[in-house]
Each structure stands twice: as structure tokens, then as C-alpha cells.
Amino acid sequence: MYGVFSHKGYKARKKGDYMKKNTKQWLRKAASVGLAFSLVLASVPAGIIPARVVQAAPGNLETGSILSAQYVKDPTVLKYYTILANAQEKYTDTEDPTVIEELSRLTASQVIDQYGSNSDYTGSVYMAYLNAYAGDIDFGDLTITSMEGIGWARKAKNMNLEGLKLTSGEITEIPDSEFNACTGLEQITFPETLKKIGKNAFSGCTSLKSLSVGKAAVMGIKLQNVGEIGEAAFSGCTSVENVELGDSEDKVMGSYAFTGCTSLKAIDIPMKDADKIGASAFEGCTKLTEVTLKEGIQYISSALFKGCAAEAENGMTFRVKGDNTSNILPKSVQVIRSNAFQEAKLDKIDLTNCDKMTEIGDYGFALAAIAEIKLPENLKKLDDYAFQGAVLTSIDIPSNCTEWGASVFSQSSLTKISLPKTLEVIPQRSFRQCEFLMGDNIQIEDGSNLETIGENAFEGCILLANTNFLKGLTKLRAIKAGAFQKCSSFFKRGTSYTQDIYGSYRLRHGGDYGPLETVELPDCVTELGEQAFADNYGLKTVDLGEGIESIPEKAFYNANAGNVYGAKLEKVIVSSKLTSIGKYAFQNQTRLNTIGYGDTVKNGTAQFPSTLGEVGDYAFAGCATEATVNGYTVYPFYVKKAGMSDTEKDGYAEYAVVEEDKSSTKTVYIAEDDRISSLDYAGLSETEQLQYTKVLAVAVRCYYKAADVVENSVSGTTYKVADEYLDTTTDAYKTYYYRQESTQPTLRLKSGTTLEKNKDSSMESQMFMLTTSILGLQSSTAGSVTYAFGLQKVILPDSVAARGIGAHAFENCFNLTTVRLPKGLKEIKEYTFSGCGKKFADNQKADDFYGLRTAVIPDTVTSIGKNAFSKCYNLVLTDEKGMGSTFGLSVQTIGDYAFDNCPSLEEIIFPSSLTTIGNNAFSNSTIKEKVQTSVTYQNTSGKEIKYTYYRNRKPYGTYSSKTGLTSIDFDRAIRLESIGTNAFQNTNVVKADMSKTKIQKLPTGAFSGCTYLANVKVSDTTEDIASKVFVDNEDLKNINIPLAATLNGQAIYGSYGTTAGKDINPTLQFDNSANTSVTVPIQGSVTLPIRVLNSDTLNGVPTVTLIDNEGTSHALYKDGQSVEGGYKGLTVKASQDEKTGVYSFTLSGTSYIKEAVKVRVEFQSKFRVLESNGFMINSHTVDYAVRVVDMPTEAVDISAAEDTVVKNKPTMYEETSGGKILYIPSTGQAATSGIQVKAVLTPYNTTEGVTWESSDPSVVTIGEPVTKDGVSTATIKRAANGKATITVTSGSKTDRLDVYCQTAAKSLKVTTVGDNLPGEFSSASGGTSKGSPYMIKADNGGKDAIRVTPEFDSSYDGVSGEKVVYTSSNPDIIEVDNTGKITTKGASDEVVTITATAQASGQKKDFFLKVQSDVTLSVSTITICGKNGANTVGAGSTLQMEADVRPAAATNKKVTWSITSGAAYGSIDENGLLTAKDKGSIQIQAVSENGKIKSNKYIVKVTMPSSELKIYNTNPTVKVGSELRINKTTSKTASTGFIILPTNSDDTVTWTTDRPDLVNVSYDTSKVVIKGLAAGKATITGTTTSGVKASVEVTVLGQGQSADGSSQNGSGNNGNGSNGNGSNGNGSNGAYSNGSQIPATGIRIFAKKPNAKKMRVAKGSSTKVKVVLTPASTTDKVTYRSLKNAVATVSASGVIKAKKNGTAKIEITTTSGRRQVITVIVSKKVKAKKVKVKAPKTMKRKKTATLKVSLAPAKSTDTLSFKSSKSSVVKVDGYGVLTAKKKGTAKITVKASSGKKKVIKIKVK
Fold it and tell me: What is the pLDDT of residue 1628?
């Protein structure tokens, strides 16, 4: 698309049906849609549509606009056009062209003369008919008042305006848009006086071919005499073929002047001033091929030739006026501006003569078709997209051209490019999607300065093939993100991708070049960006050199997985200094087989240097694939073990066989006579069979005579042959026998040829694909050949242990056989080795597997994550060290599905460290039978039910016999507390002895589907056994469950007992060995620890019997009833819980039984068989030794941890070695509802009471305690701030809880300290979310801190505020102390959360950090201000700006300074030095060098300093007691007043006098007032803020004295120096009346501070000063002024507000000119630690005194308050002024705001 005119657009307009002359129906339709408007839209560039045309759209015929003076301004033209329109209407009705033809022959005057009186032609008519008039128009020699409206005759074919004149003179200009959309106009003639053509004048005139000025119409647009061509004047004139501009260099051509003139072929542009050639002037001139330019033109305007010649057969050629050389531009051209040649077609263009050209602008040649281009040597800059998409095959970049924008050559057709050695950066996307660019054709001169290859620079260069052009570079440092991404493409035939014999998509090639296959980086490269080489499916080998120490995220990642995408990367050579491999770095490199460094590179092994510290998440995930070779088959047979050799032997045939336990091939040598078929093998005895081994053969080497090879046309036999050629770089794959071709190679031998298998050097040989005839054995069934690729052996150095192996790191690496885990490893994360195994695809290997076989788990591993080894089908765990564990010695947690689907596991031994086994942790570690086992029974309703399940298989496997997970050893798992749902489901476990564990609950499915499980013993700590724990355990014989466990539903479920047709009835035992003795408290009760009985498990009625020491039995409970009275006061009560259905037996004792007696409980248990009416029945007898005695309290344990509020805010409560502490805030639920505290009594049935006590009920109160079952509970509530201790006592035992009631913080303020932290955590810096952590370096030295400070409201007492506590989610990675100081340990992938929590209220701030060994600290925040906080500067002066860049240790702290608004008032240089130019406000901002972080916007006010101060008053006088006022003026010719120059100065004036005894001076910004005090002469001096001074001498006259010394009576002074006429003493004198003013003689200042003259104020706070003037009768007023408002401001009432740290002077001035200055020092808040007071010990009545107060430290910012204990004796005001009232003694308390105080006594006599 060329601007608004596309090829499609032109064609659409040509095809458009604009006018059909012959039907009135078309006219109505056209008018109804607004014909004029649609034409305008179709023809005019966006933004240049004339509004008047749009508004004048005529509408439809019935309701459309009437032709009137509204549209055609001149009455004569209106009359003429009315006649034409009426004629058109008649023509439309009659289709008789006679009148139209006649009107076309007449001039306007003739038409009016002949038709003007004919009412048929002068009546009202619609505009649409004028629009449709298609005849000729000739204005003759008409004189008119206005041209406006002439262009409404849209379809007029020819117009003659040559003789037309205006009443105002000659026609010199065509108005804007006048002939816009005149689509019928072909020719038009204007008078020779025409000089200017307005905007859009002829735009959209699609039929226009001729425009003449001053002569008869000829073809073409003749504009020789026209001086100005307006914007879009001829845009869309698609029929114009020729334009003549003449020779005038002064001609002006507006933007879009000829845009879309699609028939224009040539143009000669006479202007040499490029400013006179508008942008896009010839845009979209798709047939313009010949252009002549004039020497002197400075630049090619924007989009000037955009889209030119696009539809021409040949490209554009350029010439310079007067020079016959073709294809050159004027030498004077300095710049080719943006879009200048975009989408144009160009022949050769040679710019070398443009020796001043320095720049090609944005999109300058984008999408242009360029046969050849030569760039000038002085060219310096290629702007963004300069050649983007250009059809250009090669280009040489001159040595000076080093400034490139983004995407300069992206999507171009370049195949070859030469880069200068001076180029330092290949910017982002420079060659992106250059699909024909070849690596060997990229030339970089020797000694290149190239340092950086930018982001996505070569992305999508699908024929690049290699990076050979990087060889020899010595300065290259960085290859940025995506630089070589997607340099491959799949080959498509039609709509489908073609595939090779492996079923993988073929890759596109071009001749000898194809996808990127080899990468070799020079050692100087140290930085590799994310996805730098991602999605390169053709990549085979990579050598990263020695400089790359970190492989970043997705560096070699492939987005698509699976064999179909056919990733080819096999070998990677890494640096010996490699430290990290990022997330997804090699994911889905399905054939990656070899990784190494230096001399360690070994085929089939991935080995890493000892410097490696990190393997990221998904780093090698999916590095495996399995492929079935199309057309290849495998033949099984058996060979005597003695008849097969791995080495060549005489008489042995060479076979390629698939190995038994691998998906790969190998070469073996077999004695032919030692082979037998599968059928023959089946007939052998077991003893004979042991002599044979099974072979899966692919090919055999056969020998033949060369002469027997024939063409296909000759009679013979065609054989498939296997070629050992492999498109591979690693020997590990070279026996796979395949080619990349989609068809298998063949060999044709003539009929009767005999193939020999014995070696014969005289004959030719090849590997022949097997057939039954070649094999020579019958009844062998052929199968397909499937190979596996990918990582096989991985050796991880111990250095990885600290940061660990990432989650999913080796997931689905199913070809992996061996992995060496690093010593010291602490965690195997989720999915790390999941899927590292696979079933053989070959049916001949049923139930056999390959993949990871052994993994020795280091003793340091504490956690095995979710799915860590799931689907490792071939995995076998062993107790390699004989230490009694298959999981190392430290494992605490085995996660969900950790070893799910590991059918090769046979034995596991759990270590003593283990605490948790997750859901399905070992499930499916066997193979199920393929046929279901079924049992038929009748359910409870009598309906016959078929119950089915799958039995497990044991053993299984064709080549390797496996038993499945048979043995699980819990003997050492003494800390095991939890196992998950289905933990051992579907395994072959035989025995499960959990008696030594501490498992609390057996969940559903824990042992379901364990069809070989025979014996189970449950731990006596198990309290709960879920429904269906034991399901389908068809071999179950014994199960031992503790009596204290609760059984839920059918814990044992399956086809047991004869009811279900099977004679399996396991023995159920209930164990009470952990609870054989029971002590009953006297007068109390105890419930026996029996919870196994409920409605589902109890069969019949239990009995309870007491057997005394003599062996006599005494019934306590029988026949469902308790025996009344029991035995010696010992009774039993049986009950059933309504909710759980559990039966319980409670013993009560009213008499002492000190010598134990036996209590026996007898009952039957039952378990329903499936859903039938049948049950498994077992009888049980349980004995207890029982005593009834006193139960003293042994321990009291108080805690608030169980309270709901505390659970939500755990920092409220803490238990330390120093005791238990509870913090209660002043707000929230804890403050209003209190905290529930529990005291647990041991034993629970103690017979001693419990008491609660608060040490200070005024701080904490205790609600009524409730004690039950050994737990005493009470609610405590805060009453006030402070501390109280809660003591709970039972018997001789006590426990205590310290309670602190604190003020809750209003908010939490965050600051940071140290060089490695940002100024603030934000989305830009990271650290605000787990998904975007802040990166901090390892071993930071503990010098950084996150400080979180509570902020309180104004009611805070300054003492009892809550504190902040800090925690780290992983102190092993980041440790934080109680001050917020953080210390980083080792680097890790884990995101660590640092939490700062307000201890009482629970408010918290979370910070997310990630520790890395090599962190490039990026700028996170920039805060700027003027030096020393200055925000004003005088015009002509400078102000140094300062930037606080955080973190302080940022790698690049450089900032770019700019003025974002107010640039007219000043400038700022690269160092932040602001130069003020003129008065105004300047907004400044600093931006980090990468442009990502912006500072605050800082406003500096530029003030205008004064250069001169003038006082216009001459010889001024003032009388004693009167005032002289001198006002400020801005007039430079005033006779009185003062003026500050320049008049826009911001300065103010301070006025002083040398004779304060004669005059009093007061002033404000608008005036100075001089009051006479005594006769004499005084000098008044004004000083501006800038220091400019001026003085005037004032004469003070005594009463009755005139200026000349004569007496004057009754005169007053009117305030401006002239005499008034008032009577003596009463004359008017401005602000005051004569004789009534009493000036102040003294100023006393008071403040609530120790020193009112020099006070310290905390930043952000306020304080008030009190001013007392003497004498008390003074009429003076007081004004206040701060001399540094940036530090402190002062209000009109004397309130001082501290703004920022610093010192400010506060000036206090009276009306009469008295002045005092106080100093205000602003700092951070400093609390007083001590108050000192000096005061009189005694006072006399009615006397006053002022307290002298000092604070320690002296820098304290505290304010003071004063209070008297007896104001009737001594009164004290708010400023410490004492007044003695009456006799007596009073205490005066002086208190600092921080809480410190001092009390003194004063006695009044």
C-alpha cells in the first residue's frame, strides 16, 4: 500500500461506476448515498478532505439540496449553472441530447441570453443534476464576483476559463478543493494570470488529462507559469500522463501534490531547494520511471517517490539536470528522508557521487525493488527499517556507516552483505527474516570492532547454515536475545510438510545452503542472550568457546517437541568456566547426545566443568526422541551364545542387530550354523534353551560380484540395502543405518545371483535389509525398527549442589541411562527426572524397558519433589553403601507421584530421616494382568453383582525378569508421620510393617491393588484409618491395627471370605500394647483407648469384666448394660458418638484401688465383604491394668497459638527460651474481642484445680476460665498500653505468658540500605511478586538491609508502638536479622521471600529476592533533585542536578538528562548541569541508559534576577508621626514609586534605614512605608534579592514645619509625599491617622521549644511561635516570612511547617519596621532522653517568670507542654510563662513530646 493510494485502491476507483448518464434511477441512487462525499473519500489522502465538500453533499433527489447561492456564490454563474442543471434533468427524463449538445457549443453569456428567460430552464433544480451535467462549459469573457462553486459541475468534460475574470481583478488563484472530485473533467483551461493552485484543487479528477494556462488546451498538465501548487492539488488524477513544471527554481509544490497519479511516467523537478518540494508529492505514481532532479537539492523529501514505478515494466531511473549520467542523484543530496523510496521499483542507483550524504531515513528504501545500489563513502547513518523488505540481493556498507537503527535490512532479499570493520553493533532485528542470506556470504573485514550482535539480529535467516563469519572476531562480546533464533524452516509440498524415513519434517535448503547447522563462537564472546539460538531444528553442533560462562534461558530451546519436528542438535562444547545453564536452555533438543569441555568431550556423555553451579528448570527437558524407521524391519531368531561375537571371526556373518535392552543397533558376528528359528527354540528343553540368546536382526552383510549389478530394465531382483551413512556428528548414532532420504536405497542384481555371507575380499558387499529368504530361517515374524536418541549419560559436578538442579531439568529424557548426582545436593525438585524411561515399542520386547537405570541419591538430599522420578520405567534403586536406605540418609520428604510408574523398582528401604511420603509416591510400580479377574456375589439387596479387578503380574519382562516393587522396609523410618493417598497403590508389596513409624493416618488407597500383600502391621501412633485403605489384597493373611485407631467405612475392601466365592479370610488383630495400664483419678473418669469399634466394625455386644488379684471375675458391663455399683466403686459406661458412630468405654472410680486390677474387654469385629451381607468376623480380648488414685498436676503449658486471630497473624505470639510473649494491638479483632489463651494440664485428668492471674488488670483483664479434659481456657483483653504477665497455677505447677499491649501502626514505611538493593521495590526493579523477583548477588557481605518502619497516627504516645519482625522463607539462601539486614548465602533458583511483619497487628510487607552468582545489577529507581535540594535558579545561572541511582552498585549508573517541558527556559547537558535562560518552569527527568527506568519529574523554577533598582521619588519628605508610602511600579516613566528592572524579575526588596531613630521603615512586596519619628534626614536603602541596591534621602519635618523650613498648620500627609488639607493632627495619611500610631519598641518571641530563637523541628511536623510586642499599647501588626521556603514555611499566624532537612531563617517584622529573625533547623525526628528545667523556687504574687528548658540530646526535635498541678496558685501557659496567683505550692510538669518529663515545685509567697 502506498500511503492512501494502493494499487488495489486505484483499480477499485477505475472500476467504480461513478456516472451512468442515461438513467434517472442512477441519479437518485447516487444522491441518496451522498455522491460528492463518496468521491472525496475515494480521491483525497487521509486528513486532507475539505470540510465544505463534505457538508455540501447533495443527498437524494426527493430531499437533496437545491442548487442555490449557498453552493454557487456568483449570481451569473448560478444562473448559468441553473440552466445547465435543468437541461440535464430534461435529458435524464427524455434522453434527448440535443439541448445538452447545444449548450456545450455556447459560452456562458450566450446560454444566459438564449435560455435565461425560459422558465423551463430557470426553475428550482436539485444539485444532483448539476453534478451529473456531462457537457462542456465555456465561461467566455465573463466577469464574476467569485469562483467558488464553479467546480460543482462534477461531470463536465471540458471547461474553458481562459477569458474569465473577477470583479476584483485577474484570476491568479484556484481556491482550495474547487474542482475536487470532478470525475468527468478531461480538459480545463485557465487565464495566463493564474499563479497559484489551492489545496485539493483537482484531487480525485480521475479523467483529467489536460490543464493549460493562457493557451488552448493541450495534453498534459502545463504548470510552467504557476508558482505554487497546493497540498494534494492533483492527488488521485489517475489519467494524467504528463506534467510540465517549467524551469523556475522558486516554484513551491505542496505535500501529496501528485500522489496517486498512476499514469504519470516522467517528471522534471526544477526546484533545487528541497524545502519547496512537499512530502509524498509523487507517492503512488506507479508508472513513474523517469525523474530529473536539479543539482543543489539538499534532501529527498519524505515518501517523495514512495511506490513509484511499482506497476511499470522497468524501474525508476534518475538523472541530474545538465548531466547525462543515469541512475544518480544530485551530488548535493545530504539525506534521503523517511519512506522516500519505500515500495518503489528502482533500476541501478549509484549514490557514490553524493559525497555529502550522511543519512538514509526510516523506511527510506523499505520494500523497494532495487536491482543494484551503491552507497556513498561518507554515509554514517541508516535509520530504522531503511531497507526493510527490500528486494535487494547484495550490498556493501561503507566504513563510516556505523549508526544503524533497528530492522535496517529485515525481511529483505539479501544473499550477501559486506560489513565494515568499524561497525561496533549490529542492532536489533538488522537481518531478521532475511531468508536468502547465507553465513558464508557475510563478510566482515579483519580487525573488526564488532562488539555486539543485537536482539533478533539474524532471526529467521533460514539459509544461514553457519556462523563462520564470526570466526576471527576478537572484540565481539555479546550476542543478544533471539539473535539467531528460528534460522530453519520446514519444507512444504503443497499444504503438507514432507518427511524423511524417520517421519520427521524435512528442512528447507537452497542449493548448498540450508538451516543453521553449526555454531562456533570465538572465545571473546562472554554474553549470550535468552533464546539466542532457539528453534533451530537443523542445528547439529555448537561450540560456545571459552567466554560463555552462563547459558541463558531458552538459549537453544525448541518450542516444538517430538520426533516429527526432528531436532538435529547432537553435540555441544561448553566453556571450562561454565557457571550456569538457564531455564529451558536445551529443552526439546531431542537428539542431544554429547556435551563436554576441553578434552572431556566424549560421545554419548554429557559432562560439565566443576565451575557449574546451576542447572535451571526444564534445562534439558525433552532431550530424547523415539523414531520408527519407515520400511525397516526386524527379524527375531536365536543364536547359541558361543556362536556370537562382538569382533570379526572367520566363518561368521556380520549382522546389524537391535540390542535387547536398548533402542539402538550394534554390529555382531554370528556363526550361521548356530542359528535357529523361534519355532525351533520353542521345541528345546529348558536346559537346551539356556545355551541360546535371542537376536533381533535388522541387516546382514552379503557379498556379490560387481558384474552382477544391473539396471532396473534388466531382469533381476531388487534388494533393499542399508547405508551406514548417517547425517550425524556423534559416533553414538553411526550404527543406526538410516539416511535422510524418504526412500530406502536399493541394489538390483541379475537373476540367479547368489548372495554370500562369508567374507570374500574379492567381491563387493553391502548391508542387505533382511528378508526371510536372505535370513534362511522359516517362521520368523518381522517387526519394525525403532530407535531412541538423546542424552544417555549425565555427569553433574558437585558444584551444582549449592543451587541445585532445576525442576523438570531432565524430564522426558527417556534415553538417559546413567546420571551422576552431585554430592551435597539437598533437593531433587519436582519432575527433575520424570519420564526418563520408556517401554520398548517392539512387540518382541513386551514388558521390557529402557532409560534411566540407576540413580544414587546423595546422603545430603532432604527432599524428593513431586513426580521427581515418575515414569522412570527402568529405574532400580539400591542401597549402594549398605547404609540401610535407598534414598540416602537425610531424605525427609518424598513428594506426590515421586516414583509413580516405576515398574522396575523391586526393593526400597526408607531412612530414619523420612517424615512424609506423598500421594501416589510409589503407585503403579508393577505391571497389571491384561485380563480382569472377576467374582460374582449377591449384594445386600439380593442382586447378583460381578466384581472385577486386575491382578498384578510377577514376574514379567521378556529379556529382563522383574518382580515389581515387592519389598518396602519401614524399620528405620522412626520419624515417618504421614503417607499420602494411594501411596503404594498397585505395587507387588508383600509385607507392610509400619509399627516403628509415627504415621498418624492411613489414607484411602494407601495399599489398594496390592494383590500380593500378605501381612500388615499398623503403627500404634496411627489414630485414623480411612475407608478403602486395603483394597483387592487377595493374598492378605494378617493385619494388625491399634485399638486406639478410628476405622472409617470399609477400610479393608475386596473379595474376601466364602461370601464372595473365595476362601480368603485374613486374620485381624487389634493391638493395645502401647496402652496396657490405665489410671483413673479418684472421683474422676477415664475413657479406655479403644476407637476401632463402630456400627460398621462391631459385631454383637461387647463385655467388660474385672479380674481381681485373686483371679475372681466381676462383670462391669454385659448384655449391653453397665453393672450397677461395679466393683469397689469402679464402674464402666459404654456410649456411642452420634457423629462418628465410635463406641467408647469410660471407667469411673469413687474408691481408691491402689494395687492394679485387670479389666478385660471382649468383643467381635466384622468387616463387610464388598457390598454383600457377608462379613469377615474376628474375636478379640483386650486386658488393662487399672488403678484408682489421686492425680496431681505434673505440668502446666500456657499458649495463645490456637487463637484464631493469632493463627492468621502468627507474629503476635512467640515462644523463646526466655518465655512466652503475646502482643496485642490497639486496633482490630484482637483489641476488641480479646485473645483466647489455653493452659494444657498434664495429666489431663488431674485432680488439682487451676487459677488464672493478671499482674496488672489495668493493662490486661482475664475472662472467666473454663476447664475441661485437662484444658483450661480463658479470654484475655487489653485495657491499656503496657505490659502484664498472665500466670496459670495448678497445684504446685505454674506457667506464665507476658502480654504487651501496643499501639498498632497506621502503615509500614519501606526503605532500603546498601549498594545491592533498589531505592524502592517496584514492577520495574522486581521484588514485588514471586513471578518477578529482585536479583541480588551471592555473598553480599551482609551490608544490605530492608528497613520497614511502623508509622503511627497522632495519638501515638511514642512509647508502646508495635515492632517489626523479619523472616526469610529460606535462611539457607538469604538470612535476615531482626534489623532487616540481609545476608545472601549461595546462589539458587529458589525465590526467597523476606517478610517484615508488624508484631501485634500482623501488617506485613513481602519482598521476593533471588540470589545469583553473577548478577548484572540493573538500575531500579532514579531520584533527582537540584543540588542541596534547590528548586529555583536565576536566569543566566546554572544549577547542578543530582541523581540518586539505586541500587548503588548498579552495573551502569549512567543516566541521560532531558527537559520534558519548559525547554524554552533553559537547557541541560549530559552531566545534569542546568543552564537557566529565561523566567519560567522547567521539568527535568533522568532516564537510565537502557531507557527502561525513568526518574521522578523535578520542577525547577527559573526566576528573573534584578539588574537595576530605581527610586523615582525625588527629595521626599515626611512629617513626624506621618507616613510616606513609596509604591512599586512597572512604569519606566513614573514620577513616584520604585521599579525593579527588568519588570518581570521575581526579586523582592528589603528596605533599611541608617537612622532608625528618625524613621521607622516597614514594607511588603508592593510598597515601602516610611514613618517619621523625629525631625532630620535619613537614608532609605532598598536591596533586591539579587543584591542590587538603591537609596533615597528622606527629610523628616517637625510638626508645623514645611519642606523649606516654614511653618505649616493643619497639614497632613496623604501617604504619597504630597500635602493634604486635613486639620492639624487629623489629616489623612494613607494607612494611619496622624497622631494615632504607637510603634513597637520591642519584640519577644515564645515557642514550645527550649530555644525560641533557634529551634529544632522534625521534618513533616509543625510548631507555632508566639510574638509579644512592647509596649502593650502598640498599634503595630506582625508579618512573618521564611527566607527558605524549601526547608520551612511560615503562615500568617506564625505556624512553622518543616518541609525538608536543612536550615531556614524566619523573619518577623512589625508594621513600624522592627525586625527579629529566628533560626529553624529541620532534621529527622530525634527523641529527647532527658528534660532539664531552670525555674525560680519561690515567686511573689502577681509576678511572672519564664521557665528555661533544655533537652538532652540538644538535637532533640521534641516539642514541650506545660501543666500546673494548681493553676489557682501558679498558672503556666503553653509557652512556659509562669504567673503567681496566690500563696501556696504548685507542681509544674514540663513534658517532651517523646514522653520524657520533669516536675518542679514553686512556692508563692
Answer: 34
